[in-house]
Write a structure and sequence with these properties.
By secondary structure, the protein is an alpha/beta fold. The protein has two domains: 3-138 and 306-335, Rossmann fold (3-Layer(aba) Sandwich), CATH 3.40.50; 140-300, Dihydrodipicolinate Reductase, domain 2 (2-Layer Sandwich). It has 13 helices and 16 strands. The protein has helices at residues 12-22, 39-46, 58-63, 72-77, 90-100, 122-129, 140-153, 193-201, 234-243, 252-255, 260-269, 307-318, 324-335; strands spanning 3-8, 27-33, 51-53, 70-71, 81-84, 105-107, 118-120, 134-137, 158-168, 184-185, 207-214, 220-228, 247-250, 280-283, 288-290, 293-300. It has an eight-stranded parallel beta sheet, with helices on both faces. Strands 9, 10, 11, 12, 13, 14, 15 and 16 form an eight-stranded mixed beta sheet that branches. Helix 6 links the parallel strand 7 and strand 8. Helix 1 (12-22) packs across helix 12, helix 7 (140-153) packs across helix 8 and helix 12 packs across helix 13. It is globular. Bound molecules: NADP nicotinamide-adenine-dinucleotide phosphate. NADP nicotinamide-adenine-dinucleotide phosphate (NAP) is lined by residues 8-14, 33-36, 40, 85-88, 90, 108-111, 139-140, 171, 302-303, 306.
């Protein structure tokens, strides 16, 4: 029997999760929810999802011709797992509802870590989420850092990490903020919250991050420096990263590209849905090893990078499989991950 999943919140992250869940052979989408009857509600219906809304909003939706399947409580009651993709801070307010209806829930990185029993990244701590009631998939930047750290950590002993995070100013659909005409210290203190968030998954890691926001909406970019316990070779690092799940190496020289704009253009040209790039993109030419120090540059599509981990989190909490490799294989096969690259 397939696991019945509902998605509370059908915005940037929620709509992508709904699509990804509907492509998994062992899961089905019960429905999605919204509170405002705007274009996203029409999109949900046109894409075949049942739409659930707060009880006092049903008439408002129906007066605009948007068919409502029931209340958010109805949606949660008919599901085995809730994925909460409501705006940052709203998920925590829903936790009592999920609890009272006895449903396990997956929260997003905009919630505080204490909303869940465990902060989650498949490569780093799948086993910690097995059978848990509440799991939080960490943010886009944290997921990206954990993908590269988790991959390297399997083969090399890491001593220390420093990363500069160059964040997009806003998501493409946003009209209330950004693109800004500035480089904003985001935040103006060190470490930024990203290092603290990485440590919610890997508490013993020595990591410092600094973050700035810049006037772009397409992707983030990180400059990462990792110090290892022993010297290593560049070719070993490239080999490990090449075979890591959900990481693609892009050779800037070979393809004649050196920007996030061109990455997004390739995704459009390859007919990727919504020009999504859920893989972490590591710029191969940037990989530099000196003794026991590695420096690399990576780019992160903030709107889609956390989607595979949300799918994996469903398998972990329902124990569809206890094996992270098998879980990632099923998720990635059905999302076409790493299969599109030129
Ligand atoms: N965007 C990113 O780059 C990104 C990346 C990684 C993680 N995240 C995290 O993912 C979460 C969602 O972010 P997002 O960017 O997807 O936000 P978003 O685009 O603003 O989408 C939020 C969705 O939730 C709905 N919503 C708002 N209030 C609700 C409520 N009380 N009950 C039910 N639905 C409600 C919204 O529609 P209505 O207003 O119609 O209700 C909208 O569909 C946040 O924790 C964020 O930090 C975001």
């Amino acid at each position: 029997m397939r696991v019945r999943v509902c998605i509370n919140g059908f915005g940037t992250i929620g709509k992508r999760i709904a699509d990804a869940i509907s492509r998994q052979p062992d899961m089905e989408v019960v429905g999605v929810s919204k509170t405002r009857p705007n274009y996203e509600a029409f999109v949900a219906i046109r894409r075949g999802f049942k739409l659930y809304v707060p009880k006092d909003k049903i008439l408002e939706f129906e007066n605009l011709g948007i068919k409502v399947a029931g209340t958010i409580e109805d949606m949660v009651s008919s599901s085995d797992v809730v994925i909460d993709a409501t705006p940052a801070g709203t998920g925590a307010k829903y936790k009592d509802l999920y609890k009272s209806l006895g449903k396990p829930a997956i929260f997003q990185g905009g919630e505080k870590a204490d909303v869940a029993d465990v902060s989650f990244n498949t490569l780093c701590n799948y086993d910690k989420a097995l059978g848990k009631r509440y799991v939080r998939v960490v943010s886009c930047n944290t997921t990206a850092l954990l993908r590269v750290i988790g991959s390297l950590k399997r083969y090399f002993r890491i001593r220390k990490i420093f990363a500069v995070i160059v964040r997009r100013g806003a998501d493409p659909k946003e009209i209330k903020r950004g693109p800004i005409n500035a480089i904003v210290l985001d935040p103006p203190k060190v470490p930024s919250h990203h290092a603290i968030d990485v440590k919610t998954v890997l508490p013993d890691l020595d990591i410092t991050t600094v973050a700035v926001a810049v006037p772009t909406t397409l992707m983030h970019t990180h400059i990462v420096r990792i110090e290892f316990e022993e010297p290593l070779s560049r070719s070993d690092v490239v080999r490990v990263l090449e075979k890591s799940p959900r990481i693609i190496l892009v050779n800037s020289d070979r393809y004649g590209i050196r920007s996030t704009a061109e990455l997004a253009e390739i995704a459009r040209d390859m007919s990727r849905s919504r020009y999504d790039i859920p893989e972490l993109v590591i710029w191969e030419d940037s990989i530099t090893v000196t003794g026991s120090e590695l420096i690399l540059v990576q780019s992160v599509h903030q709107e889609s990078i956390v989607i595979p981990e949300n799918v994996d989190a469903v398998r972990a909490i329902t124990r569809l499989t206890d094996n992270p490799e098998e879980c990632m294989r099923i998720t990635d096969e059905n999302l076409g991950i790493k299969r599109w690259w030129i």
